[in-house]
User: What shape does this take?
Amino acid sequence: MHIHILGICGTFMGGIAQLAQAAGHRVTGCDSGVYPPMSTQLEASGIELVEGYGIEQLALKPDFFLVGNAISRGNPLLEEILDRGLRYVSGPQWLSDNVLQGRWVLAVAGTHGKTTTSAMLAWILEDAGLSPGFLIGGVPMNFGVSARLSGNVGESPFFVIEADEYDTAFCDKRSKFIHYRPRTAILNNLEYDHADIFADLASIETQFHHLVRTLPRNGLLVSNGGESSLERVLARGCWTPIERFNQAFDWRMEGDDADGSLRLMHGEEVIGKANWSLNGEHNRSNAVSALLAARHVGVPFDISLEALSRFKNVRRRLELRGTVRGVNVLDDFAHHPTAIATTVSGLRRRIGSGAEAPRILAVLEPRSNTMKLGVMKAQLPASLADADLVFCYSAKLGWDASEALAPLGHKAQVSDDLDGLIRNIVAAARHGDQILVMSNGGFGGIHDKLLAALAD
Assistant: This one.
């Protein structure tokens, strides 16, 4: 069967493409500004990509179209599909019907940490010999791909999925995760995001409540007990056993960034220990939720902790893209003020503080729909407090980034010209600096351009 995917270069739809190809389908797809890393991954898989949404793509005559949630009414190809009455389906619906049906789905939901926690959980199951399938909104370095049907010839019953609360498609405004029907679910955290589709936090809590309603009685809900928003969700009704973490009397992970130590705690009892390469309280929180979910499918804590010692994280999570003249260029997916603060402070802890410590040059593209709307612009200065200099790319913003970042004073520079921004960064950079690029998109290839400009 031939499937043509609209919006194929997004991490979710790109993962769908790889799963469909692995299932034996012919897969093609299109996107605007076909961009890596997904475009590179798809092309390496032999999936044909088309630039743009021209109606001439109908000549491919696929059996049906998969429509990503980035595609809106007014898109020329979508409009022609609708006018001609051609067959189409959303990505989550296709995934539910063709991949997840009959499998033990482990879903990871939350405003932050979904990708990292999903990657941890998939790796723990892999290391334990369970060979899970997975679909993750990033590329776990332990696997090298963002999606696969299963790790062995015989299909594993387990499938790990990053469960996004964003809407499904132009024709289905329910959250994606409503389609997944998990048996094991992690609720990591919950705060306001996606201002383009949710009016307030209560609206998102309703979608999380809908997810909770789909879990079976013999399932497990792993929930962050330190999040009042999640407690409100569960108070609306839950029919599934709950294991909470991040409470002093319950499950939690302690550790030390200096030596990479981990201690799994239950109350005051040390359940197990390990060492790993990640740091930060947020990653320890991700880890304990992954361990609890893995235990639900039969992986003992000692096996899970040992697996974490070999976990390599996900691409675009403080990923070093290159070093030129003693200047490191790092890439991170952070695009929400909470994630930005976590990323910058995490880097600060890693490199140290004080007069002799390396400087952090934070480079920010407010690209997500929430950021473009300016809903959280007031939170940006505080989230960037640990940076020494801040460079903000302001193209296509509906608000004044200079005004929003004014509390940072001389530390902040704003430009709507990418080449000019790069020149300013390179002019300011000096030996030992950490240039931290934060965006949920390709950012115009800024990482390679910075490295080239530094070399010149």
Observations:
- The mean pLDDT is 91.
- The radius of gyration is 22 Å.
- The longest strand covers residues 269-275.
- The longest helix spans residues 281-296.
